[in-house]
Amino acid sequence: MSVKLTINGVEHELDDPDMPILWALRDVLGLTGTKFGCGEALCGACTVHIDGQPVRSCVTPVKRAAGKTVTTIEGLHDHPLQRAWIELGVPQCGYCQAGQIMTAAALLASTPDPTDDEIDHAMAGNLCRCGTYVRIRAAIHKAAK
Amino acid sequence: MKRALWFAALTACSAPTPQHAPDRAAESRALFGRVAAVLTSPRCVNCHPADDSPRQGDMHMLHDPPVVRGPDDRGIPALRCTTCHQEANAELARIPGAPDWHLAPIEMAWLGKTPSEICTQLVDPARNGNRTLAAIEDHLAHDPLVAWGWAPGADRATPPGTQADAAAAFQAWVDSGAVCP
Hints:
The complex is a heterodimer of chains A (145) and B (181).
Chain A: E1 3-7, E2 10-14, H1 21-28, E3 47-50, E4 53-56, E5 69-71, H2 80-88, H3 97-110, H4 116-122, H5 133-144
Parallel strand pairs in A: 1-5
Antiparallel strand pairs in A: 1-2, 3-4, 3-5
Helix pairs in contact in A: 2-5
Chain B: H1 2-13, H2 24-39, H3 42-45, E1 55-56, E2 61-62, E3 75-76, E4 79-80, H4 115-122, H5 133-142, H6 144-148, H7 163-175
Helix pairs in contact in B: 2-7, 5-7
């Protein structure tokens, strides 16, 4: 049974309802901005939104997004977070940053001016092996202004 | 010797005295022990903590990643329980899942408590979600998140018996007078 869903404003029909969304994005649709990190929802690199809620796409089956809207890093167009990320030079290797920005975008959508604690709690599931956490937090504050 | 045998026979045939009558309260307390064996299972208490962090594993380790309870017991906006937990176990990733994955409200905390303390909470509407005992039995028997305890995936240990056994034990305890240990 195929699944109809909207990804970054474009309607798609996917054949395998049990395929992880990450596989569909990268291997079927060629949207490679979302990264594979751990494959166990432990690092946050694969974070996308379903109807505005962040999910780990490596473990989320396509069927969960049936009839819903998926937003990936490619769907954030000139988002304040992306501008702040560039201005502050947040990334080092950059591999985790798409997931970091997607989680931060969900945070700002619900909490427009978050405190340090709110940022730390919200971002706790997104790992950065380069240790860019201080710049990530600063960029979230900058985007919130 | 003959006298001793006669006395023994007489004693054995005597009607029970009041002090040998069944102690209904003791029976009820004992029946709760069967319920408590389920409720104190790691699969149950790990999501009934007295603080803001779920636990995981049989040693009740703090949840990793370090998530927090949030105002609705389902996480915070950018890090919900359902950010990772699906409606079914994700076997390859070993992530447990069931419909409406969430923590029990903090007033229903069981982790670290004795069966007696848990029982006292269960019969207190202020600490049982304002449920009747019948509603608790129904929750125990039919809630999909409770059912997950007996099908937790990976190599996780399950509570004793089955979900139906647990509901039957709870009902037997209710029928016996619902006396707490």
